[in-house]
């Protein structure tokens, strides 16, 4: 009886527990049914979220153009390939929509993607084994071109799909790369902490103008089934993206290409440690070309030797180019008489200051005038002017008036100002001839605008305007910005005459910089390099261990272009000087650049036989035109047969003997461009309207379109370029491989 009593008691307890649980669950279900919520979460909203897909609609990144509208950077559509593995995706379709035969699929794709079949097969089999809906193929399946995508799609492989993606592309390769910079696809978190992909500026203009270029992404959402297909009533919501604004630079594609070609040739021949060059319109402050070596191809920025834009980011002791500002200060102060004589060679103001020597080992040239001292680039003359004539305190005021103690404010990232070293008496003297104090090339160019522009100093800039791509309206436009007047118009004119004497005078150090058609003025520089080796002296020794430079402008009576070139530690031959590589760059760019800008020649000594006026070309028979031009020593390339419809030069233009003229006919055919420079290839592309991709620098070694192939607008041309020394290495390698075979 005791046992039955206990059993009945426990049974009663269990009944109470079960009844309580039942009532609790029933109440909970009734509550959920009535309110439609669990833990303050709406079931209706939760279900809607589960069956709703939301996707970001990427804004198109703004394009970057040169000053004439030549595209320098844009988003190129590429494709990412993936494979659907789930049989359920095919559904009731008669044709399979998933991968049916992994073996065959991998075999067909491998040669098109240039990968091993086993690599693709492993991805497919692994996805099937893990019951995945779809798989991707890593780098092999990314960034596919339209042509490659079409080739794969033509195979009609079940389950192989593509998704379009944007890739930032630079059609001119290593072209003003440290100005334009580059942007890359990066992973970032959105507002909902989801990982999304966006193109982000990493360097150069792409970085500094990233917010302007990237625009604002949009979004699309819709309801779908478990296979991600839209429902018949998808409740679609679309927020349109706002594309980024376009940036127009002051860079001129043609002058920039002239500069890139010249620097590539010097880089190949002299293998310098560093090179920099910048070309400016001194009337406005616009930078029309800028380049450095080492550089990089923004389409493949791997193994980059130098990320810095040395023109704006690397201060150095510039040497004698600074003397133009020392003489300007003396003239402006009214203490300069060019006919006064002084004893050159060596100068020691007092026993506490180390002697200042002229660059010929302190030998000097005897008693000479200060004007001749400028021509000969005399350190002693500069020292006497700064220490005795102007005075150290007043000279410092002029250095600051030329703003050598400030950044220029150029619209490029990473600018670093130099430093005026002016603590000790010797430093106050050496600053007059560019030793001790440091400056960047762009600081010197900014200061030199005062000399080229009647005493008015202008801020350099590279952004011409910002344009809304949807409306075509200009959002912002820049113009010249006056930042100082350190000298008068009379002083500027006097200094221009002195600069002219450096190139054209009897004792001038800049004779190598003469141009055929234009009178050049400028100042040479041979700067010593500080020695980092312990016990090795303050500066490096040796013929090559200098930074050789030239800052020049032309035509000197009214400068339209101004250029500064530096070449650090070139490998010189026994009879070569540091001016050889510098003058090669300067002369090639300035002569051709001034002609391109249609600046009238001012050099009366030019022989007419060295040039010819371009006759009428368009509408004439191409063979007749070739005969006419080739008689004058002009190299021509006929792109097709028949009548000329376009040419790389215009009627009436003045061209030099041995120039290359491209003649495009009504039925153009691809010429053999092996051996052409990048500039020549881009001229051909502009004339026909080709979509050209370039890789490398130097001269063309391969072309994707065979010579003789009919051409039409929008055809795709790919060329590979190599410097001459690397071409020889490739040829030697090929010969070695043939011998081994």
Automatic annotation (TrEMBL):
GO terms for cellular component: plasma membrane. It is found in: Membrane. Residues 665-723 form the PASTA domain. One of its GO terms (molecular function) is serine-type D-Ala-D-Ala carboxypeptidase activity. Belongs to the transpeptidase family. It comes from Oceanobacillus picturae. The gene is pbpB. Its main location: membrane. Pfam families: PASTA, PBP_dimer, Transpeptidase. It is an enzyme of class 3 (hydrolase). Residues 727-741 have a biased composition (Acidic residues). GO terms for biological process: cell wall organization; peptidoglycan biosynthetic process. The chain crosses the membrane at residues 12-31. Keywords: Membrane, Transmembrane, Transmembrane helix. Gene3D superfamilies: 2.20.70.70, 3.30.70.2110, DD-peptidase/beta-lactamase superfamily (3.40.710.10), Penicillin-binding protein 2a (Domain 2) (3.90.1310.10). Residues 713-741 are annotated as: Disordered. Pathway: Cell wall biogenesis; peptidoglycan biosynthesis. Its EC number is 3.4.16.4. This is serine-type D-Ala-D-Ala carboxypeptidase.
